[in-house]
Amino acid sequence: MSLDQLSGQLLVGLINGSFYALLALGLSIIFGLLGIVNIAQGAFYMAGAYFSWLLLQAFGVNYWAALVLAPLAVALLGVALERTIIFRVYGPDHMSGLLLTLGLLLIIQGLFVYIFGANARPYPVPEELRGGWDLSFVFLPKYRVWTVAISIFVCLTTWFVIEKTSLGRTLRAANENPVLTRAFGVNVPALMTFGFGFGVALAGFAGVLAAPLYTVSPLMGADLIIIVFAIVVVGGLGSILGAVITSLSLGIVEGFTKVFYPQGSHMVIFVIMILVLLVKPAGLLGRER
Amino acid sequence: MTEPLVEIANLQAHYGSSHVLHGVNLTVGKGEIATIIGRNGAGKTTTLRAIMGILGKRNGSIRIRGEETIKAQSERIARLGVGYVPEERGIFASLSVADNLLLPPVVAQGGMSIEDIHALFPNLRERSRSPGTKLSGGEQQMLAIARVLRTGASILLLDEPTEGLAPAIVQRIRSAIEAVRQRGQTILLVEQNLRFALRLADRHYVMENGRVVDVIARAEVAQKMDCLQRYLGV
CA–CA distance from B153 to each of A65, A166, A286, B73, B148 (Å)? Predict the structure, then answer.
């Protein structure tokens, strides 16, 4: 076992953890505000990657602009779906929301396969982020470091907005008691639409970050979303900080498992999920609902 | 009566399939304090919820400042200057005392400043960083009232503000409501505590089985005392 290998997997773990964190954060916000378990989050991640690829291919829009435009496009798609379809399943029964968004995931994936084919599309690493730093014990590719840094930055900013600003105060109140929050004059339905748009935009943002690392393909979100769900269950559904911390740590655990017991790396997160569910059914940082 | 701010005519309301309000008629004039009194289950809280627009099915007419709101969404009604202090107080556990106070958006000019509110309820200043639901019942009630004083709402709906509180706290809530009246705000108060209601209100609407069965003005209270006690079953 070399230090090289370990630090290499630590970085891989952190990168996966960053993608998990952005997706899990979006899921937590959407579940907290709308009570919808949004399985379609994986499709919005994939759509973010495709939009950035399309922007580059069709309009020559570069990575940096895509980093803003693609999540915006994903948010618009999300808002359109929320206003036309998803709002119909609000209520105490989470199962309808889960089934509906599972259906949406399959339809959106199917549409992308139909339009673009199932082939993976390469997306170039932006010029500024090519190459890396050689720290003698480990080689740090710039793009990977950037991915981890910007993800953590976006997650922390989101957390800050929710915990420390007046918008966040209203979001938390609407989350806890939507009826009373409305009776104070807050347009809660508009806030829910905004929350859904923002939650899926986070997934779209992760998709843009992922495009140069992996290739862009219609099914890229389907595998990821299952792992992200396990992570959200471990962290506690609805807990913002729990989602972020659990994502990064489980990403690292998964990375190290690849070094020590490669066969187990695909299931280690699920094993941890089962253990957590046995001991603390509300998740490590979640509250009982 | 002064210029009417809240006019309710033939209000009908349902909870699911049960018909709970059977034609409520009630008017509150500007700057008045009116109470709705009656036994448990008479429809007092439901009437406030209907005014606030948080009941699914309403019929009849509710005019606030002359505007018909029977079909309006709750947030629209709040924006007409209606401040709601719900039963059970509705303090948010996920917000601090300060955040609870700052949550309701300002709906009109002329609301109290945070300093004025802290002067009225000094406890809220001391506890401003605690989670809202860590306050005592009395402090939570003060917070629930203070919350709508900041917004500039000129019509306040108070649902049993003295419920379960010690006499000393009830006294403080009463002086707070009197201070609010001095500011010219209009109050519709649901109250089971008859002594509290009698000392404050200009008029009492007595409810039974989802209807207003009697209206007693302040001047008539003394001669109708027997009647009042019979209505409340005390």
Answer: 45, 20, 36, 17, 7
pLDDT in tens, A73-104: 999 999 999 999 999 988 778 899 999 999 99
Reported as a single tens digit per residue, the pLDDT across B121-148 is: 998 999 888 998 889 999 999 999 999 9
Domains and CATH numbers, chain B: 4-232 (3.40.50.300)
Of B37, B90, B48, which is closest to residue B20 (Cα–Cα)? B48
Q: Do B53 and A187 touch (CB under 8 A)?
A: no
Whole-angstrom distance between the N-terminal and C-terminal Cα of chain B? 30
- Strand locations in chain B (E): 4-15, 18-29, 33-38, 57-64, 67-68, 82-85, 155-159, 186-190, 203-208, 211-217
Element (H, E) at A137: none
pTM: 0.88
CA distance A99 to B35: 48
φ/ψ of B23, rounded to 5, equals: 90, 65
Whether the CB-CB separation of A13 and A255 falls below 8 Å is answered with yes
Distance, CA of B122 to CA of B139 (rounded, Å): 10
Domain ranges of chain A: 3-118+128-221
**pLDDT at position A283, please?**
84
SS3 of B203, please?
strand
Q: How far is CA A269 from CA A14, A175, A250, A252, A264, in A?
A: 14, 28, 7, 10, 9
Directed axis angle between helix A188-210 and helix A3-34, to 10°?
Answer: 160
Q: Which of B234, B168, B216 is nearest to B35 (CA)?
A: B216
Q: Which of B74, B103, B107 sits opposite A173 (nearest CB)?
A: B103
d(CA A48, CA A60): 16
- The answer to whether B78 faces chain A, any CB pair under 8 Å, is yes
Which one-letter amino acid corresponds to residue B104? P
Q: What ipTM was predicted for this assembly?
A: 0.92
DSSP 8-state code for residue A89: G
Confirm if B137 and B65 have CB atoms less than 8 A apart.
Answer: no
Residues of chain A with pLDDT under 50: 289
A1 touches chain B (CB under 8 A): no
Whether B95 contacts chain A with CB within 8 A: yes
Distance of alpha carbon A22 from alpha carbon A207, whole angstroms: 10
Residues A171 and A153: their CA atoms lie apart, in Å, by 21
